[in-house]
Amino acid sequence: MRNGEVSYWWRALGGFPARRASLPGPAEADVCIVGGGYTGLWTAYYLAGLRPQARIVVLEAAFAGYGASGRNGGWVTSELPGSRAVYARGPRGAAGVRDLEAELRSTVNEVGRVCETESIDCDFIRGGRLSVATSPAQLARLRAGLAHQRAWGDGDDVYSFLSGDETRERINVAGALGGLYAPDSARIQPAALAAGLAAAVERRGVTIYEATPVTEILPVSGSAEAGGAGAVARTVFGDVRARSVLRCTEGFTAGLPGSRRALLPMNSSMVVTEPLPATAWKQIGWDGFETLSDEAHAYVYAQRTADGRIAIGGRGVPYRFGSAVDQLGVTQPSTIAALAGVLRRMFPAAGDVGLEHAWCGVLGVPRDWCASVTYDPPSGLGWAGGYTGHGVAAANLAGRTLADLVAGESSPLTSLPWVGHRSRAWEPEPARWTGVHGLYALYRLADRLEAPSADRGGQARVMLGEALGRAGDLVSGIPH
Ligand SMILES: Cc1cc2nc3c(=O)[nH]c(=O)nc-3n(C[C@H](O)[C@H](O)[C@H](O)COP(=O)(O)OP(=O)(O)OC[C@H]3O[C@@H](n4cnc5c(N)ncnc54)[C@H](O)[C@@H]3O)c2cc1C
Questions:
Q1: Is the CB of residue 271 less than 8 Å from the CB of residue 305?
Q2: What φ, ψ does residue 54 adopt, rounded to 5°?
Q3: 8 CB less than 6 Å from ligand 1?
Q4: Cα separation of 102 and 20, whole Å?
Q5: Least C-beta-crowded within 10 Å: which of 50, 104, 105, 406?
Q6: 467 Cα to the center of ligand 1, angstroms
Q7: At residue 306, does pLDDT exceed 90?
Q8: What is the distance between the alpha carbons of residues 427 and 321, in angstroms, rounded to a whole number?
Q9: Is the CB of 270 under 6 A from ligand 1?
Q10: Cβ proximity of 295 and 142 under 8 Å
Q11: Three-state SS string across the chain, please?
Q12: Is 135:145 a contact under the CB 8 Å cutoff?
Protein backbone atom coordinates (compact mmCIF):
# COMPACT_ATOMS: atom_id res chain seq x y z
CA MET A 1 0.00 0.00 0.00
CA ARG A 2 1.24 3.49 -0.81
CA ASN A 3 1.54 6.02 1.99
CA GLY A 4 1.91 9.75 1.40
CA GLU A 5 2.75 11.06 -2.08
CA VAL A 6 0.49 13.96 -1.00
CA SER A 7 -2.73 12.00 -1.76
CA TYR A 8 -4.39 9.28 -3.81
CA TRP A 9 -6.31 12.07 -5.55
CA TRP A 10 -3.15 13.47 -7.15
CA ARG A 11 -1.90 9.99 -8.06
CA ALA A 12 -5.25 9.26 -9.75
CA LEU A 13 -4.67 12.33 -11.93
CA GLY A 14 -1.31 10.92 -13.04
CA GLY A 15 0.99 12.24 -10.30
CA PHE A 16 2.03 15.72 -9.28
CA PRO A 17 1.10 18.40 -11.80
CA ALA A 18 3.69 20.05 -14.06
CA ARG A 19 5.39 22.66 -11.88
CA ARG A 20 4.74 26.34 -12.64
CA ALA A 21 7.63 28.81 -12.48
CA SER A 22 8.80 30.31 -9.19
CA LEU A 23 8.70 34.07 -8.59
CA PRO A 24 11.48 35.40 -10.89
CA GLY A 25 12.48 38.27 -8.54
CA PRO A 26 11.07 41.27 -6.65
CA ALA A 27 7.69 42.30 -8.04
CA GLU A 28 4.76 44.66 -7.61
CA ALA A 29 1.10 43.74 -7.79
CA ASP A 30 -2.28 45.08 -6.84
CA VAL A 31 -3.18 41.96 -4.91
CA CYS A 32 -0.82 39.25 -3.67
CA ILE A 33 -2.43 36.03 -2.45
CA VAL A 34 -0.31 33.75 -0.26
CA GLY A 35 -1.35 30.08 -0.66
CA GLY A 36 -2.67 28.24 -3.70
CA GLY A 37 -5.39 26.11 -2.11
CA TYR A 38 -9.13 26.57 -2.59
CA THR A 39 -9.21 29.76 -0.48
CA GLY A 40 -6.46 31.51 -2.43
CA LEU A 41 -7.65 30.24 -5.80
CA TRP A 42 -11.34 31.08 -5.28
CA THR A 43 -10.37 34.54 -4.04
CA ALA A 44 -8.24 35.07 -7.15
CA TYR A 45 -11.00 33.71 -9.39
CA TYR A 46 -13.73 36.05 -8.15
CA LEU A 47 -11.45 39.06 -7.72
CA ALA A 48 -10.23 38.72 -11.30
CA GLY A 49 -13.90 38.61 -12.34
CA LEU A 50 -14.67 41.81 -10.42
CA ARG A 51 -11.46 43.64 -11.38
CA PRO A 52 -10.19 42.25 -14.69
CA GLN A 53 -7.46 44.91 -14.92
CA ALA A 54 -5.98 44.22 -11.47
CA ARG A 55 -2.52 42.62 -11.29
CA ILE A 56 -3.15 39.57 -9.10
CA VAL A 57 -0.44 37.08 -8.16
CA VAL A 58 -0.64 33.87 -6.12
CA LEU A 59 2.50 32.77 -4.26
CA GLU A 60 2.42 29.05 -3.45
CA ALA A 61 5.05 27.24 -1.36
CA ALA A 62 4.74 23.92 -3.24
CA PHE A 63 2.11 23.58 -5.99
CA ALA A 64 -1.52 24.65 -6.32
CA GLY A 65 -3.55 22.02 -4.43
CA TYR A 66 -0.60 20.69 -2.40
CA GLY A 67 -2.36 21.30 0.94
CA ALA A 68 -5.72 20.16 2.27
CA SER A 69 -7.38 21.21 -0.98
CA GLY A 70 -5.69 18.33 -2.83
CA ARG A 71 -6.06 15.82 0.00
CA ASN A 72 -9.54 16.17 1.51
CA GLY A 73 -12.53 13.83 1.67
CA GLY A 74 -14.26 15.50 -1.27
CA TRP A 75 -17.30 16.62 0.68
CA VAL A 76 -18.62 19.91 -0.68
CA THR A 77 -20.63 20.35 2.48
CA SER A 78 -22.86 23.20 3.61
CA GLU A 79 -22.07 22.48 7.28
CA LEU A 80 -21.32 25.60 9.32
CA PRO A 81 -17.59 25.96 10.02
CA GLY A 82 -18.14 27.03 13.59
CA SER A 83 -20.66 27.47 16.36
CA ARG A 84 -24.02 29.14 15.84
CA ALA A 85 -23.93 30.47 19.39
CA VAL A 86 -20.55 32.15 18.85
CA TYR A 87 -21.45 33.69 15.47
CA ALA A 88 -24.79 34.85 16.96
CA ARG A 89 -22.82 37.10 19.34
CA GLY A 90 -22.07 39.27 16.29
CA PRO A 91 -24.08 42.45 15.59
CA ARG A 92 -26.66 40.66 13.40
CA GLY A 93 -27.40 37.96 16.00
CA ALA A 94 -29.25 34.81 14.96
CA ALA A 95 -30.39 36.38 11.66
CA GLY A 96 -26.76 36.69 10.60
CA VAL A 97 -26.17 33.02 11.40
CA ARG A 98 -29.21 32.00 9.33
CA ASP A 99 -27.89 34.08 6.42
CA LEU A 100 -24.46 32.46 6.67
CA GLU A 101 -26.06 29.00 6.67
CA ALA A 102 -28.26 29.85 3.67
CA GLU A 103 -25.21 31.15 1.78
CA LEU A 104 -23.29 27.96 2.56
CA ARG A 105 -26.17 25.86 1.22
CA SER A 106 -26.29 27.80 -2.04
CA THR A 107 -22.49 27.63 -2.26
CA VAL A 108 -22.75 23.89 -3.03
CA ASN A 109 -24.57 24.83 -6.25
CA GLU A 110 -22.14 27.69 -6.92
CA VAL A 111 -19.20 25.27 -6.88
CA GLY A 112 -21.11 23.02 -9.30
CA ARG A 113 -21.96 26.00 -11.50
CA VAL A 114 -18.35 27.13 -11.83
CA CYS A 115 -17.19 23.56 -12.50
CA GLU A 116 -19.66 23.42 -15.37
CA THR A 117 -18.85 26.90 -16.72
CA GLU A 118 -15.09 26.34 -16.55
CA SER A 119 -15.25 22.69 -17.70
CA ILE A 120 -13.67 21.46 -14.46
CA ASP A 121 -14.19 17.72 -14.48
CA CYS A 122 -14.03 16.82 -10.78
CA ASP A 123 -16.76 14.15 -10.52
CA PHE A 124 -19.17 16.64 -8.90
CA ILE A 125 -22.38 14.85 -7.85
CA ARG A 126 -24.89 16.58 -5.60
CA GLY A 127 -26.00 13.45 -3.74
CA GLY A 128 -26.53 14.96 -0.28
CA ARG A 129 -24.97 14.02 3.01
CA LEU A 130 -25.86 11.10 5.27
CA SER A 131 -24.82 10.73 8.88
CA VAL A 132 -25.44 7.26 10.28
CA ALA A 133 -25.96 6.11 13.88
CA THR A 134 -24.75 2.58 14.67
CA SER A 135 -25.35 2.46 18.44
CA PRO A 136 -28.24 3.58 20.66
CA ALA A 137 -26.03 6.34 22.08
CA GLN A 138 -25.23 7.60 18.57
CA LEU A 139 -28.92 7.46 17.68
CA ALA A 140 -29.83 9.51 20.75
CA ARG A 141 -27.17 12.06 19.76
CA LEU A 142 -28.45 12.15 16.21
CA ARG A 143 -32.02 12.80 17.43
CA ALA A 144 -30.80 15.51 19.82
CA GLY A 145 -28.89 17.07 16.92
CA LEU A 146 -32.04 17.07 14.80
CA ALA A 147 -34.05 18.72 17.61
CA HIS A 148 -31.36 21.41 17.75
CA GLN A 149 -31.61 21.95 13.98
CA ARG A 150 -35.40 22.23 14.23
CA ALA A 151 -35.07 24.77 17.06
CA TRP A 152 -32.98 26.88 14.69
CA GLY A 153 -35.71 26.64 12.05
CA ASP A 154 -34.29 23.94 9.77
CA GLY A 155 -37.14 21.92 8.26
CA ASP A 156 -37.16 18.64 6.35
CA ASP A 157 -35.72 20.40 3.31
CA VAL A 158 -32.49 20.96 5.27
CA TYR A 159 -32.34 17.88 7.54
CA SER A 160 -34.57 14.82 7.52
CA PHE A 161 -34.54 11.80 9.81
CA LEU A 162 -34.24 8.35 8.24
CA SER A 163 -35.15 5.10 10.00
CA GLY A 164 -32.64 2.25 10.04
CA ASP A 165 -34.32 0.66 6.99
CA GLU A 166 -34.43 3.96 5.09
CA THR A 167 -30.79 4.58 5.90
CA ARG A 168 -29.69 1.13 4.71
CA GLU A 169 -31.76 1.57 1.55
CA ARG A 170 -29.43 4.45 0.64
CA ILE A 171 -26.18 3.00 2.00
CA ASN A 172 -26.08 -0.42 3.62
CA VAL A 173 -24.00 0.43 6.67
CA ALA A 174 -23.90 -2.58 9.02
CA GLY A 175 -25.86 -1.99 12.20
CA ALA A 176 -27.37 1.32 11.03
CA LEU A 177 -30.12 2.30 13.47
CA GLY A 178 -31.01 5.60 11.83
CA GLY A 179 -29.63 8.46 9.81
CA LEU A 180 -29.78 12.17 9.21
CA TYR A 181 -29.96 13.23 5.59
CA ALA A 182 -29.09 16.70 4.28
CA PRO A 183 -29.50 17.36 0.55
CA ASP A 184 -27.04 20.27 0.34
CA SER A 185 -23.81 18.40 -0.19
CA ALA A 186 -21.85 17.14 -3.17
CA ARG A 187 -19.08 14.62 -3.78
CA ILE A 188 -15.96 15.64 -5.73
CA GLN A 189 -12.44 14.48 -6.62
CA PRO A 190 -10.61 17.18 -4.61
CA ALA A 191 -7.34 17.40 -6.55
CA ALA A 192 -9.25 17.63 -9.82
CA LEU A 193 -11.10 20.67 -8.46
CA ALA A 194 -7.81 22.28 -7.33
CA ALA A 195 -6.11 21.63 -10.67
CA GLY A 196 -9.10 22.80 -12.73
CA LEU A 197 -9.58 25.89 -10.61
CA ALA A 198 -5.90 26.86 -10.89
CA ALA A 199 -6.19 26.65 -14.68
CA ALA A 200 -9.41 28.71 -14.63
CA VAL A 201 -7.72 31.35 -12.49
CA GLU A 202 -4.86 31.61 -15.00
CA ARG A 203 -7.35 31.99 -17.85
CA ARG A 204 -8.63 35.05 -15.97
CA GLY A 205 -5.15 36.59 -16.12
CA VAL A 206 -3.84 35.73 -12.65
CA THR A 207 -0.20 34.60 -12.33
CA ILE A 208 0.49 31.64 -10.03
CA TYR A 209 4.10 31.26 -8.84
CA GLU A 210 4.86 27.83 -7.39
CA ALA A 211 7.75 26.57 -5.23
CA THR A 212 7.71 30.08 -3.75
CA PRO A 213 7.30 29.96 0.04
CA VAL A 214 6.49 33.26 1.69
CA THR A 215 8.67 33.72 4.75
CA GLU A 216 6.91 36.76 6.19
CA ILE A 217 3.96 39.08 5.55
CA LEU A 218 4.54 42.68 6.63
CA PRO A 219 2.41 45.83 6.56
CA VAL A 220 4.19 48.86 5.10
CA SER A 221 1.41 51.33 5.75
CA GLY A 222 2.39 54.88 4.94
CA SER A 223 5.54 53.95 3.09
CA ALA A 224 6.04 56.15 0.05
CA GLU A 225 7.74 53.29 -1.78
CA ALA A 226 4.58 51.23 -1.59
CA GLY A 227 2.42 54.07 -2.83
CA GLY A 228 1.29 55.28 0.57
CA ALA A 229 -0.06 52.01 1.89
CA GLY A 230 0.04 48.32 1.28
CA ALA A 231 1.97 45.31 2.38
CA VAL A 232 4.84 43.02 1.47
CA ALA A 233 5.07 39.27 1.04
CA ARG A 234 8.71 38.33 1.59
CA THR A 235 10.27 35.37 -0.26
CA VAL A 236 13.80 34.12 -0.90
CA PHE A 237 13.40 35.32 -4.50
CA GLY A 238 12.53 38.87 -3.42
CA ASP A 239 9.61 40.84 -2.02
CA VAL A 240 6.20 41.21 -3.62
CA ARG A 241 4.78 44.63 -2.80
CA ALA A 242 1.04 44.96 -3.18
CA ARG A 243 -1.87 47.12 -2.14
CA SER A 244 -3.41 43.99 -0.58
CA VAL A 245 -1.69 40.86 0.72
CA LEU A 246 -4.04 38.01 1.62
CA ARG A 247 -3.00 35.10 3.81
CA CYS A 248 -4.74 31.93 2.56
CA THR A 249 -2.59 29.28 4.22
CA GLU A 250 -5.13 27.60 6.57
CA GLY A 251 -3.46 24.59 8.27
CA PHE A 252 0.03 25.91 7.45
CA THR A 253 -0.52 29.36 9.00
CA ALA A 254 1.53 28.57 12.13
CA GLY A 255 4.64 28.54 9.92
CA LEU A 256 4.39 32.30 9.36
CA PRO A 257 6.00 34.68 11.86
CA GLY A 258 3.40 36.43 13.98
CA SER A 259 0.75 33.76 13.33
CA ARG A 260 2.17 30.79 15.26
CA ARG A 261 -0.83 30.44 17.58
CA ALA A 262 -3.59 31.71 15.24
CA LEU A 263 -4.72 28.39 13.72
CA LEU A 264 -3.94 24.93 15.04
CA PRO A 265 -2.87 22.51 12.26
CA MET A 266 -5.27 19.64 12.95
CA ASN A 267 -4.31 16.42 11.25
CA SER A 268 -6.76 14.31 9.26
CA SER A 269 -5.93 11.01 7.56
CA MET A 270 -7.53 9.03 4.78
CA VAL A 271 -7.32 5.58 3.19
CA VAL A 272 -8.75 4.48 -0.15
CA THR A 273 -9.59 0.91 -1.10
CA GLU A 274 -8.92 -0.88 -4.33
CA PRO A 275 -11.96 -0.81 -6.64
CA LEU A 276 -14.83 -2.86 -5.16
CA PRO A 277 -16.29 -5.68 -7.28
CA ALA A 278 -19.82 -5.22 -8.63
CA THR A 279 -21.09 -7.86 -6.17
CA ALA A 280 -19.91 -5.76 -3.22
CA TRP A 281 -21.53 -2.60 -4.61
CA LYS A 282 -24.76 -4.56 -5.09
CA GLN A 283 -24.77 -5.30 -1.35
CA ILE A 284 -23.68 -1.83 -0.26
CA GLY A 285 -25.86 0.26 -2.59
CA TRP A 286 -24.67 3.90 -2.30
CA ASP A 287 -26.09 4.59 -5.75
CA GLY A 288 -26.77 8.21 -4.77
CA PHE A 289 -23.09 8.96 -4.04
CA GLU A 290 -24.01 10.65 -0.75
CA THR A 291 -21.13 11.86 1.39
CA LEU A 292 -21.19 9.64 4.49
CA SER A 293 -20.22 10.01 8.15
CA ASP A 294 -21.00 8.35 11.45
CA GLU A 295 -22.10 9.85 14.78
CA ALA A 296 -19.04 8.79 16.79
CA HIS A 297 -17.31 11.46 18.87
CA ALA A 298 -14.14 10.73 16.86
CA TYR A 299 -16.18 10.48 13.67
CA VAL A 300 -15.23 9.22 10.21
CA TYR A 301 -16.16 10.69 6.81
CA ALA A 302 -16.32 8.79 3.52
CA GLN A 303 -17.24 8.91 -0.12
CA ARG A 304 -17.85 6.45 -2.94
CA THR A 305 -15.33 7.53 -5.55
CA ALA A 306 -16.04 7.86 -9.26
CA ASP A 307 -13.65 4.96 -9.89
CA GLY A 308 -15.58 2.55 -7.66
CA ARG A 309 -13.61 2.73 -4.39
CA ILE A 310 -14.40 3.79 -0.85
CA ALA A 311 -12.32 6.64 0.53
CA ILE A 312 -12.65 7.03 4.30
CA GLY A 313 -11.00 9.46 6.67
CA GLY A 314 -10.76 10.36 10.33
CA ARG A 315 -8.65 12.17 12.86
CA GLY A 316 -5.90 9.58 13.57
CA VAL A 317 -3.05 11.29 15.43
CA PRO A 318 -4.80 14.64 15.80
CA TYR A 319 -1.92 17.04 16.20
CA ARG A 320 1.88 17.17 16.01
CA PHE A 321 3.86 18.88 18.77
CA GLY A 322 4.79 22.49 18.05
CA SER A 323 2.25 22.78 15.19
CA ALA A 324 4.49 20.66 12.93
CA VAL A 325 3.03 19.42 9.65
CA ASP A 326 3.43 16.09 7.85
CA GLN A 327 6.04 15.22 5.23
CA LEU A 328 4.26 14.79 1.88
CA GLY A 329 1.21 13.33 3.60
CA VAL A 330 2.78 10.21 5.15
CA THR A 331 0.46 8.96 7.89
CA GLN A 332 0.93 6.60 10.84
CA PRO A 333 0.38 2.78 10.61
CA SER A 334 -1.87 2.89 13.71
CA THR A 335 -4.15 5.40 11.98
CA ILE A 336 -4.33 3.27 8.84
CA ALA A 337 -5.24 0.21 10.96
CA ALA A 338 -7.94 2.17 12.83
CA LEU A 339 -9.53 3.47 9.61
CA ALA A 340 -9.40 -0.02 8.06
CA GLY A 341 -11.16 -1.37 11.15
CA VAL A 342 -14.03 1.13 10.87
CA LEU A 343 -14.30 0.49 7.13
CA ARG A 344 -14.64 -3.30 7.60
CA ARG A 345 -17.12 -2.82 10.45
CA MET A 346 -19.32 -0.50 8.41
CA PHE A 347 -19.05 -2.50 5.18
CA PRO A 348 -18.53 -6.26 5.72
CA ALA A 349 -19.06 -6.62 1.94
CA ALA A 350 -15.75 -4.77 1.47
CA GLY A 351 -13.99 -7.11 3.92
CA ASP A 352 -11.76 -8.73 1.31
CA VAL A 353 -10.94 -5.58 -0.61
CA GLY A 354 -7.41 -4.29 -0.07
CA LEU A 355 -6.35 -0.76 0.80
CA GLU A 356 -4.45 0.98 -1.95
CA HIS A 357 -3.24 4.29 -0.56
CA ALA A 358 -3.13 6.23 2.71
CA TRP A 359 -2.27 9.86 3.32
CA CYS A 360 -2.90 12.76 5.67
CA GLY A 361 -3.02 16.54 5.72
CA VAL A 362 -3.67 19.51 7.96
CA LEU A 363 -6.71 21.73 8.30
CA GLY A 364 -6.85 24.95 10.30
CA VAL A 365 -8.67 25.16 13.63
CA PRO A 366 -9.14 28.48 15.46
CA ARG A 367 -9.29 28.42 19.27
CA ASP A 368 -13.08 28.96 19.25
CA TRP A 369 -13.61 26.64 16.22
CA CYS A 370 -15.14 29.51 14.21
CA ALA A 371 -13.78 30.49 10.79
CA SER A 372 -12.99 34.06 9.80
CA VAL A 373 -12.84 36.18 6.65
CA THR A 374 -11.08 39.42 7.45
CA TYR A 375 -9.78 42.40 5.48
CA ASP A 376 -8.30 45.58 6.88
CA PRO A 377 -8.33 48.29 4.16
CA PRO A 378 -5.81 50.65 5.84
CA SER A 379 -3.07 48.01 6.05
CA GLY A 380 -4.19 46.02 3.00
CA LEU A 381 -3.86 42.80 5.02
CA GLY A 382 -6.49 40.10 4.85
CA TRP A 383 -6.99 36.42 5.48
CA ALA A 384 -9.56 33.64 5.44
CA GLY A 385 -9.62 30.16 6.90
CA GLY A 386 -10.15 28.13 10.05
CA TYR A 387 -12.97 26.07 8.59
CA THR A 388 -12.38 23.22 11.10
CA GLY A 389 -12.75 20.44 8.53
CA HIS A 390 -15.69 21.93 6.61
CA GLY A 391 -13.58 23.96 4.21
CA VAL A 392 -14.41 22.79 0.71
CA ALA A 393 -17.62 24.79 0.21
CA ALA A 394 -16.68 27.35 2.87
CA ALA A 395 -13.50 28.28 0.99
CA ASN A 396 -15.60 29.21 -2.04
CA LEU A 397 -17.87 31.46 0.04
CA ALA A 398 -14.84 32.89 1.88
CA GLY A 399 -13.08 33.55 -1.43
CA ARG A 400 -16.11 35.35 -2.89
CA THR A 401 -16.39 37.37 0.32
CA LEU A 402 -12.71 38.30 0.45
CA ALA A 403 -12.89 39.34 -3.21
CA ASP A 404 -15.82 41.69 -2.42
CA LEU A 405 -13.98 43.11 0.60
CA VAL A 406 -10.77 43.76 -1.34
CA ALA A 407 -12.67 45.27 -4.27
CA GLY A 408 -14.52 47.54 -1.82
CA GLU A 409 -17.89 46.16 -2.89
CA SER A 410 -20.54 46.12 -0.18
CA SER A 411 -22.59 42.96 -0.70
CA PRO A 412 -24.79 40.61 1.34
CA LEU A 413 -21.63 38.52 1.85
CA THR A 414 -19.61 41.29 3.46
CA SER A 415 -21.97 41.51 6.45
CA LEU A 416 -22.01 37.78 7.26
CA PRO A 417 -21.05 37.09 10.89
CA TRP A 418 -17.69 35.43 10.10
CA VAL A 419 -16.44 38.67 8.48
CA GLY A 420 -13.96 40.23 10.87
CA HIS A 421 -14.48 37.45 13.42
CA ARG A 422 -11.54 37.18 15.84
CA SER A 423 -10.60 34.10 17.86
CA ARG A 424 -8.16 34.16 20.74
CA ALA A 425 -4.73 32.59 20.32
CA TRP A 426 -4.07 28.92 21.09
CA GLU A 427 -2.21 28.07 24.29
CA PRO A 428 1.59 27.74 24.07
CA GLU A 429 3.19 24.27 24.15
CA PRO A 430 3.08 21.86 25.86
CA ALA A 431 -0.49 22.86 26.85
CA ARG A 432 -1.61 22.83 23.18
CA TRP A 433 -0.37 19.30 22.50
CA THR A 434 -1.62 17.96 25.85
CA GLY A 435 -5.06 19.52 25.41
CA VAL A 436 -5.67 18.22 21.87
CA HIS A 437 -4.33 14.72 22.57
CA GLY A 438 -6.25 14.55 25.85
CA LEU A 439 -9.44 15.57 24.08
CA TYR A 440 -9.18 12.88 21.40
CA ALA A 441 -8.20 10.22 23.99
CA LEU A 442 -11.41 11.21 25.81
CA TYR A 443 -13.49 10.96 22.62
CA ARG A 444 -12.07 7.51 21.78
CA LEU A 445 -12.77 6.25 25.29
CA ALA A 446 -16.32 7.67 25.03
CA ASP A 447 -16.82 5.86 21.70
CA ARG A 448 -15.59 2.56 23.18
CA LEU A 449 -17.92 2.91 26.17
CA GLU A 450 -20.88 3.69 23.91
CA ALA A 451 -20.33 0.67 21.62
CA PRO A 452 -23.20 -1.85 21.78
CA SER A 453 -22.38 -4.75 24.11
CA ALA A 454 -24.24 -7.47 26.00
CA ASP A 455 -22.18 -6.92 29.17
CA ARG A 456 -23.89 -6.37 32.48
CA GLY A 457 -23.69 -2.78 33.51
CA GLY A 458 -23.87 -1.79 29.84
CA GLN A 459 -26.26 1.08 30.46
CA ALA A 460 -24.06 2.72 33.09
CA ARG A 461 -21.08 2.39 30.76
CA VAL A 462 -22.96 4.03 27.90
CA MET A 463 -24.03 6.89 30.17
CA LEU A 464 -20.43 7.40 31.22
CA GLY A 465 -19.40 7.44 27.53
CA GLU A 466 -22.04 10.07 26.73
CA ALA A 467 -20.96 12.19 29.71
CA LEU A 468 -17.29 12.03 28.71
CA GLY A 469 -18.12 13.01 25.12
CA ARG A 470 -20.20 15.96 26.31
CA ALA A 471 -17.44 17.02 28.69
CA GLY A 472 -14.98 16.96 25.79
CA ASP A 473 -17.26 19.17 23.69
CA LEU A 474 -17.74 21.62 26.56
CA VAL A 475 -14.07 21.94 27.45
CA SER A 476 -12.88 22.23 23.85
CA GLY A 477 -15.74 24.39 22.58
CA ILE A 478 -16.24 22.07 19.60
CA PRO A 479 -19.66 22.92 18.15
CA HIS A 480 -22.12 20.06 17.63
C1 LIG B 1 -7.47 14.80 5.03
C2 LIG B 1 -8.43 15.96 5.00
C3 LIG B 1 -9.77 15.73 4.71
C4 LIG B 1 -10.67 16.81 4.63
N5 LIG B 1 -11.95 16.57 4.21
C6 LIG B 1 -12.79 17.61 4.01
C7 LIG B 1 -14.05 17.40 3.40
O8 LIG B 1 -14.37 16.30 2.96
N9 LIG B 1 -14.89 18.47 3.26
C10 LIG B 1 -14.54 19.71 3.70
O11 LIG B 1 -15.35 20.63 3.59
N12 LIG B 1 -13.31 19.97 4.22
C13 LIG B 1 -12.42 18.95 4.34
N14 LIG B 1 -11.16 19.18 4.80
C15 LIG B 1 -10.75 20.58 5.03
C16 LIG B 1 -10.53 21.31 3.71
O17 LIG B 1 -9.84 20.49 2.80
C18 LIG B 1 -9.74 22.60 3.96
O19 LIG B 1 -10.40 23.36 4.95
C20 LIG B 1 -9.60 23.46 2.72
O21 LIG B 1 -9.10 22.71 1.65
C22 LIG B 1 -8.68 24.65 3.04
O23 LIG B 1 -8.29 25.28 1.84
P24 LIG B 1 -7.17 26.40 1.94
O25 LIG B 1 -6.92 26.86 0.59
O26 LIG B 1 -7.59 27.40 2.95
O27 LIG B 1 -5.91 25.64 2.55
P28 LIG B 1 -4.93 24.59 1.82
O29 LIG B 1 -5.63 23.78 0.81
O30 LIG B 1 -4.23 23.86 2.91
O31 LIG B 1 -3.95 25.51 1.03
C32 LIG B 1 -2.97 26.29 1.65
C33 LIG B 1 -1.83 26.43 0.65
O34 LIG B 1 -0.92 27.37 1.15
C35 LIG B 1 0.38 26.93 0.84
N36 LIG B 1 1.28 27.57 1.80
C37 LIG B 1 1.41 27.31 3.11
N38 LIG B 1 2.32 28.12 3.65
C39 LIG B 1 2.76 28.93 2.68
C40 LIG B 1 3.72 29.96 2.61
N41 LIG B 1 4.40 30.35 3.69
N42 LIG B 1 3.94 30.59 1.42
C43 LIG B 1 3.25 30.21 0.31
N44 LIG B 1 2.34 29.23 0.32
C45 LIG B 1 2.10 28.59 1.48
C46 LIG B 1 0.32 25.42 1.01
O47 LIG B 1 1.36 24.77 0.29
C48 LIG B 1 -1.07 25.13 0.45
O49 LIG B 1 -1.05 24.80 -0.91
C50 LIG B 1 -10.22 18.13 4.91
C51 LIG B 1 -8.88 18.36 5.21
C52 LIG B 1 -7.99 17.30 5.25
C53 LIG B 1 -6.54 17.56 5.57
A1: no
A2: -70, 145
A3: no
A4: 37
A5: 50
A6: 33
A7: yes
A8: 12
A9: yes
A10: yes
A11: CEECCCCHHHHHCCCCCCCCCCCCCCEEEEEEEECCCHHHHHHHHHHHHHCCCCCEEEECCCCCCCCHHHCCCCEEECCCCCCHHHHCCCCCHHHHHHHHHHHHHHHHHHHHHHHHHCCCCCCCECCCEEEEECCHHHHHHHHHHHHHHHHCCCCCCCCEEEEHHHHHHHECCCCCCEEEEECCEEECCHHHHHHHHHHHHHHCCCEEECCCCEEEEEECCCCCCCCCCCEEEEECCEEEEEEEEEECCHHHHHHCCCCCCCCEEEEEEEEEECCCCHHHHHHHECCCCCEEEECCCCCCEEEECCCCCEEEEECCCCCCHHHCCCCCCCCCHHHHHHHHHHHHHHCHHHCCCCEEEEEEEEEEECCCCCCEEEEECCCCEEEEECCCCCHHHHHHHHHHHHHHHHHCCCCHHHHCCCECCCCCCCCCCCHHHHHHHHHHHHHHHHHHHHCCCCCCCHHHHHHHHHHHHHHHHHHHCCCC
A12: no
Q: Is the distance from the beta carbon of residue 196 to the nearest atom of ligand 1 less than 6 Å?
A: no
Q: Look at residue 466 in the predicted model and tell me its pLDDT.
A: 84
What are the pLDDT digits (tens) for 428-471? 999 999 999 999 998 998 888 888 765 656 888 888 888 888 88
Residue with CA at minimum distance from ligand 1 atom 14: 389
Interval between CA 205 and ligand 1 midpoint (Å): 23
The answer to whether 406 and 31 are in contact (CB under 8 A) is yes
Model confidence, pTM: 0.96
149's CB contacts (< 8 A; 6+ apart) are: 158, 159
**What is the C-alpha separation between 340 and 314, in angstroms, rounded?**
11
